[in-house]
């Protein structure tokens, strides 16, 4: 527990205390405050904060303002004369108060504990964690290490790496870069998780050094990340350039990891694109010494025959170029720990433990969902005469029926309990990669955005499926809240249960609304529009949106980006009808040639100029 002035920040219960009085905080404001309190007395840039709190999401920096406003109100702080949160205009924030460690009040018995930040407060997977810890001295000694962490959905891969990486970062004084692979839309983007990992790295305290090395050894990556608009380099996704840009990036990462250890984490590699897997493969096979730790999580059941990760894994294992940690089902005592943590109660009835363990089969997420279901059904209750304790209201034999065998069926069951209108809202939300704005759901469902926002707020309060993540300012000056699913599995189930035809219809409506909202500035959102059109297999609209984005990029001199967009437009144009293809492809090739010429021309002029980062 951290103390500042009369406040105590309670990490275990995710709340704030002031003079012994508990102040409830929503998960995101809590996370913002926690980050500030854990990094007092220094500038925390917008990028750093966004990256730490929404590692997998694109979030507008304005969102932070909303949270700071809320936190200032709670802390009684004054932006003009701050005691706690100082705004450093255009740069970020600084937490000004002195922070000390403090003993905490007893765990509150207010209700089931909200889902904790992964790894908080309990020992997670001691045995598997010890295997990971054994990698630390090897990496410190200059060995490159690749560790695959496999386990089915909800088995605790993210919880394990979330518990381990801070420890490894601090033991090795390492830099950390994390890339998330996503199903659906994200899968269409080459190197998507690599770009995300590099963005993460560049925005971290080691960012300056990383950018310098990338600018020298792999400038095309900085161009693609939008951090080096003046460099003359090919786009990283150009088919002919891919091998070279992969090699350049390997060399740059090795250079970075020569002195300072580097941890690369790729989450959910079952959804990784080929290029990302090739990069992991190249990094694993190269021999130069590097203090490099590559962690890759994946779900083994997704590796069907012919999946490229399957072949890669087998080859690396055979050559002893990687280690694998398989997350087995949790033992009963560990499932009991999960339950105890969720309920905030250590002495649970053995009957409850046996029941949940038997049905969840050692899967922690399954165990948590069963618990929530029992609470929702009022089978697990806090009796009026003892409101601090959870007890089973019925003998377990009578509740035995109705717990599905599959985790996804369990999620499905929870969704089915909601009124149809709310189910549709969540389904529309699942069409976005991570955060989904209320206006987009409203567009998909052809409903009023304010009504949808109200409904989503209600869902965030009454269900554990989603949480409000912030508020966006739209070009017309209006505001729209956005939300995230609390676990990726909820989004997956919601996405899968829809027919392709309906998804396509909704994707097209969202893309159309994006165009309306950003009228006159469509090019800014063309990439996003194209992803929706692609998902709907509306190829012509997708190609046109990408062309518009490329035009906009070329206009502001970002020729590398224009080339990447046009290459992508050409790739999806293979799906056009012959008549459509004719004119489109000719025009796109012309634009591509012009962008390449412009880049070459600039390279000639600037070949001697020093590179600015
Ligand atoms: N050892 C553990 N002790 C307590 N809770 C755990 C443990 N492992 C996982 N959990 C909890 O179970 C839930 C699912 O875990 P997690 O998200 O890490 O699974 P995952 O393997 O990453 O799943 P996915 O494949 O869907 O990404 C989370 O709420 C997490 O906090
Ligand atoms: Mg996970």
Counted by DSSP, the helix tally is 26
Q: Strand pairing plus helix content: what structural class?
A: alpha+beta
Largest sheet: 5 strands, antiparallel
Low-confidence stretches: 104-121
Number of strands: 18
Q: Overall 3D geometry? A: globular
**What is the radius of gyration computed over CA atoms, rounded to a whole number of angstroms?**
25 Å
Assign the CATH architecture of the largest domain. Answer: 3-Layer(aba) Sandwich
Overall mean confidence score, pLDDT: 85
CATH names the topology of the largest domain as Rossmann fold
End-to-end separation in angstroms reads 39 Å
CATH class of the largest domain: Alpha Beta
> How many structural domains?
5
Strand numbers in spatial order across the main sheet? 4-3-2-1-8
Q: Which small molecules are bound?
A: adenosine-5'-triphosphate, magnesium ion
As a percent range, the share of strand residues is: 5-15%
Amount of helix: 40-55%
């Amino acid at each position: 527990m951290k103390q500042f002035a009369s406040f105590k920040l309670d990490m275990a219960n995710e709340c704030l205390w002031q003079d012994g009085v508990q102040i409830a905080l929503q998960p995101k404001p809590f996370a913002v405050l926690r980050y500030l309190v854990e990094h007092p007395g220094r500038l925390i840039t917008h990028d750093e904060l966004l990256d730490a709190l929404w590692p997998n999401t694109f979030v507008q920096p304005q969102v932070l303002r909303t949270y700071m406003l809320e936190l200032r109100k709670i802390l009684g702080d004054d932006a003009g004369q701050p005691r706690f949160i100082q705004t450093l205009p255009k740069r970020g924030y600084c937490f000004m108060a002195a922070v000390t460690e403090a003993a905490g009040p007893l765990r509150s018995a207010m209700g089931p504990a909200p889902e904790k930040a992964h790894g908080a407060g309990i020992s997670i997977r001691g045995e598997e964690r010890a295997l990971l810890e054994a990698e630390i001295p090897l990496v410190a000694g200059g060995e490159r290490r690749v560790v695959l962490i496999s386990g089915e959905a909800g088995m605790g891969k993210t919880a394990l790496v979330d518990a381990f990486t801070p420890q490894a970062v601090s033991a090795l004084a390492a830099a950390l870069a994390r890339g998330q692979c996503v199903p659906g839309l994200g899968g269409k983007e080459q190197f998507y998780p690599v770009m995300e990992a590099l963005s993460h790295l560049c925005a971290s305290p080691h960012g300056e050094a990383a950018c310098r090395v990338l600018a020298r050894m792999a400038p095309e990556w900085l161009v693609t990340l939008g951090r080096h608009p003046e460099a003359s380099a090919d786009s990283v996704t150009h088919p002919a350039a891919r091998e070279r840009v992969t090699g350049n990036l390997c060399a740059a990462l090795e250079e970075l990891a020569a002195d300072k250890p580097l941890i690369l984490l790729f989450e959910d590699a079952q959804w990784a694109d080929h290029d990302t897997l090739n990069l992991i493969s190249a990094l694993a096979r190269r021999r130069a010494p590097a203090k490099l730790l590559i962690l890759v999580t994946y779900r083994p059941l997704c590796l069907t025959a012919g999946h490229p990760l399957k072949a890669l894994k087998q080859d690396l294992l055979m050559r002893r170029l990687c280690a694998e940690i398989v997350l087995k089902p949790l033992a009963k005592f560990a499932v009991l720990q999960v339950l105890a943590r969720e309920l905030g109660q250590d002495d649970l009835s053995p009957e409850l433990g046996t029941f949940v363990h038997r049905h969840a089969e050692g899967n922690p997420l399954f165990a948590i969902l069963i618990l929530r279901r029992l609470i929702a059904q009022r089978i697990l209750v806090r009796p009026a005469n003892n409101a601090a304790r959870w007890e089973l209201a019925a003998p377990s034999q009578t509740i035995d029926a109705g717990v599905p065998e599959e985790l996804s069926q369990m999620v499905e069951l929870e969704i089915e309990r909601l009124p149809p209108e709310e189910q549709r809202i969540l389904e529309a939300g699942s069409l976005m990669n991570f955060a989904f704005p209320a206006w987009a759901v409203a567009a998909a469902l052809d409903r009023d955005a304010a009504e949808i926002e109200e409904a989503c707020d209600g869902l965030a309060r009454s269900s554990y499926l989603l949480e409000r993540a912030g508020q966006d300012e739209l070009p017309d000056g209006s505001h729209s809240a956005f939300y995230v699913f609390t676990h990726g599995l909820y989004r997956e189930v919601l996405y899968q249960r829809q027919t392709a035809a309906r998804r396509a219809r909704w994707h097209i409506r969202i893309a159309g609304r994006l165009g309306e909202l950003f009228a006159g500035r469509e090019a800014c959102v063309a990439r996003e529009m194209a992803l929706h059109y692609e998902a709907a297999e509306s190829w012509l609209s997708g190609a046109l949106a990408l062309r518009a984005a490329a035009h906009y990029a070329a206009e502001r001199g970002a020729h590398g980006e224009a080339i990447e967009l046009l290459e992508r437009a050409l790739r999806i144009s293979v799906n056009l009808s012959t008549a459509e293809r004719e004119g489109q492809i000719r025009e796109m090739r012309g634009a591509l040639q012009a962008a390449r010429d412009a880049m070459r021309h600039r390279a000639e002029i600037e070949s001697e100029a020093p590179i600015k980062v």
